[in-house]
Amino acid sequence: MLYRENGQFKTSYRADLQIFPIAQDRIAIVALLAVAFVVVPLVADQYYLRAILIPFLILSLAALGLNVLVGYCGQISLGTGAFMAVGAYAAYNFFIRVDGMPMLAAVLLGGLCATAVGVVFGIPSLRIKGLYLAVATLAAQFFVDWAFLRITWFTNDAPSGSVGVRNLSVFGLPIESPVQKYLFTLTVVVVFALLVKNLVRSAIGREWMAIRDMDVAAAVIGIRPVYAKLTAFAVSSFVVGVAGALWGFIYLGSWEPAAFSIDRSFQLLFMIIIGGLGSIMGSFFGAAFIVLLPIFLDQALPALGTAVGLRLDTAFVSHVTIMIFGALIVFFLIVEPHGIARLWSTGKEKLRLWPFPH
Amino acid sequence: MEGSVTLKALAGAGMPHRKIGEVILDVQNISLRFGGVKALTDISFDVREHEVRAIIGPNGAGKSSMLNCINGVYQPQQGAITFRGKTFKHMNSRQVAKMGVARTFQSLALFKGMSVLDNIMTGRNLRMKRNLLWQALRIGPAEREENEHRAVVERIIDFLEIQAWRKTPVGRLPYGLQKRVDLGRALAMEPQVLLLDEPMAGMNVEEKQDMCRFILDVNDEFGTTIVLIEHDMGVVMDISDRVVVLDYGKKIGDGTPDEVRANPEVIKAYLGTTH
Amino acid sequence: MKFKSLAIAAAIAVGGAALTSGPAFAQAKDQYIPVLSYRTGAYAPNGTPWANGYVDYLKFVNAKGGLNGVKIVWEECDTQYDTAKGVECYERLKGKYGGASLVQTLSTGITFAVTEKAPQDKIPIITAGYGRSDSQDGTVFPWNFPLAGHYWVAADVLVQHIAKQEGGWDKLKGKKIALVYHDSPYGKEPIPMLQERAKMHGFEVQLLPVTHPGVEQKATWLQIRQNRPDYVFLWGWGVMNSVALKEAVATGYPRDKMYGVWWAAAEPDVKDVGEGAKGYHGLAMQHGAHPNAKITKDILEAVHGKGQGTGPKEEVGSVLYMRGAMSAMLGIEGIKRAQERYGKGKVMTGEQVRWGLENLALDQKKLEALGFNEVMRPVSTSCVDHMGPAYARIHTWDGSKWAFTSDWYQADESVLKPMVKASAAKYAAEKKITPRSPADCQA
Amino acid sequence: MGFFLETLIGGLMSGMLYSLIALGFVLIYKASGVFNFAQGAMVLFAALAMARFSEWLPSRLGIESKVLANVIAFALAFVVMIAVAWLIERLALSKLVNQEGITLLMATLGISYFLDGFGQTVFGSDIYKIDVGLPKDPIFLMESTFQGGVLVNKEDLYAALIAAALVALLTLFFQKTGTGRALRAVADDHQAAQSIGIPLNRIWVIVWSVAGFVALVAGIIWGSKLGVQFSLSLVALKALPVVILGGLTSVPGAIIGGLIIGVGEKLSEVYLGKYFGGGIEIWFAYALALVFLLVRPQGLFGEKIIDRV
After folding, report:
1. Shortest distance, CA A294 to any CA of chain D (angstroms)
2. pLDDT by residue (tens digit) across B110-156?
3. Do D120 and C222 touch (CB under 8 A)?
4. How far is CA C368 from the centre of its chain?
5. Which of A1, A75, D199, D216 is most enclosed, with most CB atoms within 10 A?
6. The pTM is what?
7. Contact, C313 vs C300, CB < 8 A?
8. Domains of chain B
9. Neighbours of B (≥3 Cβ pairs closer than 8 A)?
10. Quick one: which of A68, A72, A210, A126 has its CA closest to B125?
11. Which of residues 148-207 of D touch A (CB under 8 A)?
12. Which of the following CATH numbers is that of domain C31-149+290-380: 3.20.20.140, 3.40.50.2300, 3.40.50.300, 1.10.150.240?
C-alpha cells in the first residue's frame, strides 16, 4: 500500500508535467542521487570506481545518446563508435593544441565536432531506411577508424598514432584520483540525462517519435523529416561524442582508434535494446547489464570453479563467459523484447496494485 | 441505415445557421499515375468555406489518393490545386499544414508509441517556437509555451470525451477511440480545412453517431470547412452539403446529395454496388 | 510469470556478486605478479604460448624455492588484446595480494593506457620487446621498461642486416623496402626509424597498411607485385602473417626477401604455410626458438616433468613460449636485484622493484646460471636508460623450424638515442611532465 | 594494362568469395526476415568443425586416405551445422516471431557470441589447417602480350568456381524442388504460406541448414586460404556492404554486389590507395555501397518500398 499515486492531485499542468509525477519516485531518485554522490565515494574502493563505475557511467551516457537516435527517432546506427572516436580525438586536439584550454571546454567542443560529423553521416538517413541505413552507417565506423590511424595531424604526429592526456582539472580542481574522476563523470552524466529527458518530452522529442512511429502522418501535420532526423543525429552524436571524450580522457587516459571499434558500436546497441528503446532509464539499465555481466562472469566462474574444487584455465573461462553472455542476451530478448525498462514499469504497475492482484 | 436517418436531429447544432462562403479550395484537372496504373484522371472540384463536402465512390475509386494529392503526400503528374487564391502544381506537406489544412487517415496513422496526450500535442508543434536549447533547459519561456499548448490540447480532449485515456499509449486503445484521437490530432492544428478519410469506417451505429456529432460540432462551432470521404451513403447524404462521386479515378458526379442521388451514372456505378 | 523468473535470475546474480566481491587482500607474504594475457580472440594463437611460457617460468621459480625463499603468487586475466578489457584486468589485479610488484601488458594499446596510470599506482611496467619505443627514456617514463629492445631497435637491426647482405650501407641507395604493417599503433611504431634510415642511406620506404585483422591482402600484394620492392618487412600480427606469406606464395614474391619482426616470426605464423614459407626470415630479439637450451630442459624437467605444465610439452622452447619465459625471467631478476638492496627474503614493493629493474646487471655469468646463456646476451639498465643494450639476430624458417642465420646485432646508438630523446621530450611537453633529475635516481 | 587486368581479376575473385558469405545473409533474410549477424560465427564454427574432424579422423580412427577423411569430415560438419540450425530455430527464432528487425538482429549477434565461445571451447582456439587440396601456386596468362604476364591466383580461381557452382546449385534448389518453392512462398508472405499449410518452423530449420551449408563451404574456402581461427568470423564484415548493395532479398543481388564490391575495393586500394596513404579498401567498400543506395535505397535488386496511408 506504500506505492500509490492516488491522493496526489495535480492542480497545474506544470505539476503534471514534471519528470516524476509520483511523489514516491521523486523521493527514490533523490535518495539514489544522494547515494551516488555521497555514499559511493566514501565506501567504494579503487577497483569498483575505476574499473566498473566510471566505465558504466560513461557508457550509459553514450547509450543515452544512441537511444535518442535509435529509440526515439527510429534510425538504427551501427556507427556509434565512430562518433565517440571523433569526440575523443577532437577533444584531445583542442586540449593539446590550444594553450590553457580547460578540460571541460575541450570535451564539449569534442562533442560539437562529433555533432558535425554525425549530421554529415546522418544525411543518407533521409533516403535510406531500416537495416540498409544500419549497415550504411558502418561506413562512418570504418572511415573514422581509418582517418584517425592515417591522418597523423589528428594524433599530433605521435609515431604510433596513439594519444593520451594527463594532469586533468576542472575549475582548478584536479581530476586525478578515482574518486575525483568518478564524481566528475557522475555530474556530467546526470546533467546530460536531465537535458536529454527535457528534450524528449518537449516538442522536438515528439517530432522524433512521430517520425519513428509514422513518418507520412508526421509530414502531414507539418513535421519536417529532414529537420527531425538531422536534429536527432545531431543531439545523439553530441552526447555520444562527449561520452567518447570522457572514455578517452577519464577512463583510458591513453587510447587508439581500436578503443572505438565496431565492437563498441554493437555493445552500445545492445545496451539500448536490452535496457529499453526510447527510455532514459533504460539506457542506464542496459549499460549496467552489458558492462557488469561479463566482468561478473569472468570473476564468478573461477570462484565457482574453486568452490567445486577445480581450477579453470583462463581461456576456458573467457570462452564460457562469451557463451553465457550471448545466451543471456537472447534469453532477455525473448522474455522482454522491450527491455529492462519495460520490466521496471511492469514491476511498478504490480507494486501500485499490491496487495490486490488486479 | 435507419440509425443514420435521425443523425441531423442527434447532432444538436445540426440546424445550419452557418452560411456557406467563397471557394476556399479548388482542384483543377488532377491526374495521378503510379507507373502504369492510373489512380486519378482529370479530376476537378471545388470546396466552399464552411461547407461539408463529401467525396464518395467504391473501393479503389481514388478517394484517398485525392486527399494525398491535396496535402502533398503524392505529387500528381498533371493539374493544379488552388488554396485561398494561391495556385500550386505540387503541394508541400508542411506548407499545406501551415496554410491550415489538417487531415485524418483511413488506416489509422497515429503515433503508436506515444500517449494520447503527446499524439494530440504533435498537432501543436507547428505553433511551438522555442528552439532546441530552450527545450533542453526547459525553463521560463519554453515551459510556459509547453503549458499553454497543453491547455489547448486539454480542451480538445474534453471536447472528444477521452479524458480517461490521456496518458495511455494509443496503441492500446480500442479502434473507435483511436479514430477520435486521430481527429483530435487534426483539430489541435486549429485547421480551416479538415480532410477526413473515412472517419466512421468499421464503427457501430452508436460510434458513428458520436463521430457525426463531433464532425458537425466542429463544422458549426469553429466554422471549419470539412472534406469527407465516407462509404456509408446514409451518413454522407445526411451531413454533407455537396458530394463528389469518383469511380475508377474518374469523376462521375458532383452536386447536392439529392442531385447525386438522382444521377443515373452514380446509381449504376455506386449505389448499384451497395445493394 | 516471466517477471518472476527474471526477478529470480537477478537475485541469483546478486548472490553471485557477493560471492566474488572485492579484491582478496591476502597479507603480503608472497611476491604477487599479475598476469595479463590473451588466450582468446583474434590473436589467441600467438598469445597462448607466450602466456604458457610466462606462467611456466613462474612455476619453475617456485619449484626452485622462489625468490630467496619468497614464493611467487600470480593471477591471470584474459585481456582479449582489447585495451578497455585490459585496463579492467589491470585495475582488477593490481590491488590483490597486497599489491602487484610489476606488470607486463603484452599489448601496445594496453601499455599506452597503463603508462598513464603507473605513476599513481607505482607499479613498474615491463614491455619486453614491444610497447612504446620512447619509453626507453627513464627520465620521462620512470615506470616503463622496454627490456630486450623495442620496435625501433627491431627496425634498425633489420636495416643493418640487409645493408650487410647488400654489402655495405652505400649499396642501399635506390633500393626499395616495402613495410607491410598491421594498421595499429603496434604496426606504426617502426615507421619513424625506417624513414630516418631511409633519409640517411637513400633507400625508399613504401608503406602498405593492412587493416585488422588482415584476412584480405590481395590489394596489398598486387601493389608489391607491381612495384617489386627489393625487400618486404612484415610487421604483421596474428592471422595477418600467415595470410601475407600465402599471398607472397600466390604472387610469387621470393620469401627469402621477406623479413618479419619477432611477432611475425614465430611458429604459429608459418605453421600452416609450411613449405611455402621456406626461406622467410624473422627478427629474433634476444632469443629465438630454443628447444635445446638449458632453461628449456630445466622447465620441462621441473614443471612439465611434474605434470605442472601450463600448455602442451611440444611448445616449450618455441619462439613465443621463450618470449614469455624470458619476460618473466627479466621481471623476476628485477625483483631479485631489488632484494639485494632492500633485503633478501623480503617481499618487494613496486617502487623497490623499479629500483631493481633500473639497476639490472645480467652478465653472461648470471645468464648461464639461469640457463639463458645461449638464449640471450647480457642486459644492464640504468635510471636514464630503461632498456640497456638490446641484441638481436636473424633466424630463418627452413620449412619445419626456425634456425639462426646471422650473428648478433645491436641498434646503432647514434641513430637511436636522439630519436628516443626527441620523442620522449615531446611526450613530456605534451603531458606537462617534468623529467626526473639524476638526483631523483639515487632514491 | 596487364596489371589492371590482374587487379580486375583479383577483384572479381575476391568478390566471388564475398558473395559466398553474402549468400548466407540473403537466404535467411528472404525466408525469415532475420538479418543474421551470426553468419560470420557460423562460418567460423563450420570451418572449425571441418578442420578438427579432418584432423581427428586420421589420428583417432586411423583413416589413412586424406580424401576419405575430408569427405567424412565434410559430412559430419554439415550434420553439425544442421543441428546448430535446428537449435537456433528451437531455442531462439521460434520464440522471437513478429519481433522488430532490430531485435532479431541483436538476437543473432547474441547467437554469434555464443557460437564463437562454444566453437572455440569445443574445437580449441589455435590455428588449424583445412587442406582440401586447393593449389597454392600462381598461373600466368598472356605472357606474350604483357611482360610478366597476368597473374591469376589459382586457389582463388578454384574458389570462385566452387562459389559459382554453389550459387547455381542453390538456384536450382529454389526453382525446381518443392521445398524450394515452399521457401519462396514463405519469403513472399508468411501468413499466406502458413494458411496454405506450409509449416514455418520446418522451413526455417531448412533455410538455416542451407545457410549453414553455405557457411561450411565458405568456411572451407576461406579456411584453406587463411587457416582456421577466430579471425575467420570477421570476414562477415566484408560481406555486409555486398548484401545491402545487392539488396537484402536477392540472390543474384548478392552475386553482382559481391563482384562490384570486390572489383571496386581492389581498384580503389591499388590506384587511389597511394594518395590516401593506403588501407582504404574496407571503408571504400561501404562508401561504394552507400552511393548505390542513395540512388536505389532498396539495393540493386531489392523490392521497392512504397509507403501508403
Report:
1. 12
2. 999 999 999 999 999 988 888 888 889 888 888 889 999 999 999 99
3. no
4. 22
5. A75
6. 0.91
7. yes
8. 2-100+191-274 (3.40.50.300), 113-188 (no CATH)
9. A, D
10. A210
11. none
12. 3.40.50.2300
